[in-house]
Design a protein that fits this description.
Hydrophobic Seed Protein; alpha+beta; Beta Polymerase, domain 2; 3 domains; single chain; about 55% helix; two-stranded antiparallel sheet; about 425 residues; binds adenosine-5'-triphosphate
Length: about 425
């Protein structure tokens, strides 16, 4: 097996000081206990690609929770244990390491979660989704500095290929179909030809995946820098319509994702979800919501977007009319409309989100009784009239507002 002595230097150079300290401590503890530990999966792939590694995933040939407990105590870090999975996360003060007991997995039924057994690093690599994720890097022991690459991940990295480890991979776990498109888009890779054929053959296995698991993978996709790339690919592969026949994605909708990032960068995480359902017609919306296990807020936004597409403000509607329609809807739905609608509706939704919704009169409720408005319900009504007048440019200054309020109060007498 080829040694990669430089990988450890690359790793240490790429990590912030706090991570280096935590990792050094971990290696020290593992050495004392004679436990072999490996950097595994995503961070190894990213290091080999000269990308900054994300989470530090460490596989432990032994009890990961026990080792993590000692690390947390020695380095004064927090620990979250997942006994069922034999994993633990140690974090705090800029350090974050995920530890997992190396394990083998057997799939008793397609789509079901596998049965896991503590095992060797080799078995742990063989259970993984793609060859480029099936590499480990020994952090201690005799093999320290060595790259373990039993599935040819390095060659696939060099060739830019996403390849499964065996022919039944997508049948065992069809979420890998969604994952393949995600890695392909993220890394600018290509799904290797035989893997592509297996993926297409096994699309029906997506039906074995629970809505919660589909949701989790889609949520990860939506966290990518340009999720539309993976979604377009999933549409081309036929995976979206297999999830639900009315789920579609095309380059126009992809462009709307890009627009959303430009106009509402802080809204993307909520507004991507209704956008995913943009092309779903009314009769199917509830079934899509169920299939994707949308949360209540995501589902409300998807429904609201449907509703708004049929009942958007009329062309030429005044700002106050526009605001009264959009104010009643979840912001995520209006952002989605601002990104994906065309013509006047897109402009109205955009104007509402960036301007109208933050327009407020200078006068406050407390100011109104002195201007002749009796305390109580009338105050709210007058404030709403005032806001509408301000939105429509009928009042600008405080004096304008006072004049309007006095007039309204007189008329109501
Ligand atoms: P990265 O691969 O960069 O860590 P991520 O954080 O989005 O991306 P996760 O979904 O957390 O990836 O997966 C982490 C690792 O766990 C992957 O690199 C892969 O080796 C393995 N893995 C995750 N899900 C599966 C799966 N369904 N089947 C097999 N292996 C998986």
């Amino acid at each position: 097996m080829p040694g990669s002595p430089k990988l450890i230097d690359k790793l240490l150079a790429s990590l912030p000081k706090e991570q280096v300290n935590a990792l050094s401590r971990l290696i020290e503890l593992a050495n004392q206990r004679g436990t072999a530990i490996y950097l595994v999966g995503g961070p190894v792939r990213d290091l080999l690609l000269d990308l900054l590694p994300g989470d530090l995933d460490v596989a432990v040939e032994g009890d990961a929770i026990d080792l993590a407990t000692h690390l947390a105590a020695a380095a004064d870090l927090r620990i979250v244990r997942h006994a069922r999975f034999g994993t633990a996360t140690v974090s705090g003060d800029g350090a974050h390491i995920d530890l997992a007991t190396a394990r083998s997995e057997t799939y008793e039924a397609a789509g079901a979660l596998p049965t896991v057994h503590p095992s060797s690093i080799d078995d742990d690599l063989h259970r993984r989704d793609f060859t480029v994720n099936a590499m480990a890097f020994a952090l201690n022991g005799n093999a320290v500095g060595r790259l373990l690459d039993p599935a040819g991940g390095r060659a696939n990295l060099d060739a830019g290929l996403i390849r499964v480890l065996h022919d039944a991979s997508f049948q065992d776990d069809a979420t890998r179909i969604l994952r393949a498109a995600r890695y392909e888009a993220r890394l600018g890779f290509r799904i290797e030809e035989a893997t592509h054929d297996l993926l297409v053959r096994d699309l029906p296995f997506l039906e074995t995946i629970s809505p919660a698991r589909v949701h989790r993978e889609l949520a990860r996709t939506l966290l990518e820098r340009e999720p539309e790339r993976a979604l377009l690919r999933l549409a081309d592969l036929g995976a979206l319509r297999t999830l639900h026949p009315s789920l579609h994605f095309d380059s126009e909708l992809g462009a709307a994702f890009g627009r959303l990032r430009e106009i509402g960068p802080r809204a993307v995480l909520t507004a991507y979800w209704p956008l995913v359902t943009w092309q779903v017609a009314q009769p199917a919306i509830e079934r899509v919501i169920t299939r994707l296990a949308l949360t209540r807020r995501q589902a409300d936004a998807a429904r609201a977007l449907r509703e708004l597409r049929g009942n958007a403000p009329r062309p030429g509607a005044s700002p106050s009319e526009t605001a009264s329609i959009f104010a009643a809807q979840p912001a995520a739905a209006v952002w989605a409309l601002a990104a994906a609608a065309s013509g006047a509706v897109r402009e109205q939704a955009h104007a509402y989100m960036v301007t109208y919704r933050s327009v407020h009169p200078l006068l406050r409720g407390d100011d109104l009784p002195a201007l002749g408005v009796p305390p109580g319900k009338a105050v709210g009504e007058v404030l709403a009239r005032l806001r509408a007048a301000k939105l429509d440019g009928e009042v600008r200054t405080r004096a304008d507002e006072e004049r309007l309020v006095r007039g309204l109060a007189r008329n109501d007498e």
